[in-house]
Give the backbone structure.
Amino acid sequence: MTIKSVLAASTAMMLAAPAMAEPTAEVLHWWTSGGEAKSVAVLQEQFAAEGGTWTDMPVAGGGGDAAMTALRARVLSGNAPTAVQLKGPAIQEWYEETGLADIGAVAEENGWADVLPAQIAEHMKCEGQWCAAPVNVHRVNWIWGNKQILDEHGIAMPTTWDEFNAAADKLQAAGVTPLAHGGQNWQDATIFETVVLGLGGPEFYQQALVDLDPEALTSDTMKQVFDEMRTIRGYVDPNFSGRDWNLATAMVMNGEAAFQIMGDWAKGEFLAAGKQPGVDFVCAPTPGEGFLYNVDSFAFFELEGEEKQQGQALLAKLIMGPEFQKTFNLNKGSIPARTDVALDEFDDCAKQSNQDMNADAQDGSLLPSYAHGMALRGAPAGAITDVVTAHFNSDMSSEDAVQQLADAVANAM
Amino acid sequence: MEWLERNVPKVVLAPSFVAILVFVYGFIAWTAWISFTKSRLMPRYEFDGIGQYERLFAAPRWDVAMNNLFIFGGLFIVISMVIGLALAIFLDQKIRAEGVLRTIYLYPMALSLIVTGTAWKWILNPGLGIQQAVRGWGFENFTFDWLIRPEMAIYTIVLAAVWQASGFVMALFLAGLRSVDTEIIRAAQVDGIPTHRIYSAIVIPTMAPIFLSAFIVLAHLAIKAFDLVIALTGGGPGYATDLPATYMYAMAFSRGDLGQAASSAMIMMGVIFAIVVPYLYSELRPRRDQ
């Protein structure tokens, strides 16, 4: 072996070395509760199996508020984490503030565009380039019912809001609390958006809560929505103030209330308590047509360093991998964002969710949830929630409410 | 060596002076600057005039927060002082087991406001607490549901805060009462002056500085009140019990609206200055009678 060949070999080694560098990822997320933590552990294992080093950075609290505060501190100090749990327009907002890494290469290689519904894919792009990877799709507009109570009073799952009101009146007359609800801002907002979708239809929802068209916000339809909110206020029990959503779910489970309007994370509570869909509880889309989605995703910041960039690429690939999408969503109660994952192991509610998502993606009624930060940025979304919750918890008239709604939205822009 | 002797106090104080300069006054200046920019998710530093303040005063939620501050602050300070003074006067009557009673009244102060808030949340919950209990005793029509009525909910916060702070005010006043010259009181008693006159004409006027201290302590507790609201009502029903501090938190940490948060923080600081500056002025000016 000549010196030359040794040199050549060692140069080759050195050149190859960066490509052999271990991918590393520091992942900021707020999935800390039982089922969620289990789901993250799956990703962590897969990442390690591919030779990566995972640094976990879970920040619990405030539905992600604490994690966002941590993120801001990290970014301000010029030390952004590799991957961050971000969702909805916040991805684009961060992109405008600091820039996000382009993961287009991974996306194209794995054909993301073919397996994601177009509306959801759009959320993952910043100025046309892929900058985030979706994990799951939660459907927000679900109504859950206690099967035993409903059968006892001969009530079918309502398909219009009038039917819902009639059913609720009947239950109330029989001494049953019709609706389990927790008096927290976001829960009020969750009911509100399902009513907007139900009474106004997908097109109106798009105009009012996505495009923030002032005409739609002050329209008669919006007044009817607030009228319905006032009616619904009459269907909750007197102790609803400040109640957490899972306690409201427990009321439906234990037969203390008939219905709950909540996203499909409520299903996780039913399943964890050993209840069977269709036997103990029933799920149905809230009255009206359309599908409101809440998609969790990971975004990647622009970072120096080969091993970090490799970590990002590997993570993006794994997150969108069919295997992870299946395992994660079985744990979390949502459905895979990929449309080509087999759903055999999922329950009937998830299957229906998937079916509706695919159907609604075709006719444009697959819409982002405003209450869960998918449709609007923080300030306008918060301004709408303020009006909704103030109306729900007082005797404000619907006329005043729509006026305040338009003013608040204008003030938040 | 001589230089060192002369300058040791300055050298020792310098680090904390610098730390306070940067971390208190520096960040106040930073917040003031942010309040004049269009900062949203992240701070931006281009000057943008008073737009954030216009938005702030156009927001109905901020109106509610400021009104609540005055309702809560006013009632909390007055009621705590009245109850504290009354307790102190009663304890001052050379009663038996004073030490035990004093500790009992002072104990709420040892609790964190989060604990106080959570406990009162259960006590005031119509389905769990007082209302349910009294109905259980047979008074079916008894209602005490302030916690879920938007126009009354702020008074539940007053109630819990007074419960927490009045024992502390009592301790302050008790110390004040004990420092009054007993000779004067004895002289008054010899002259046959009734007890209530002794208190209203001699004891309480000599305690004026204690009143001022109690007022300042309570006033700043009221303005920075945050944890009690979060634990007791979460700002609800709706945003009926929002205070400026909770408003600021919501804007900064939940909504990604740093400009709004900064401008509301500046207004809060203005309110505190309006109270503290006259106090400092009266404390720091040279006394003419000395």
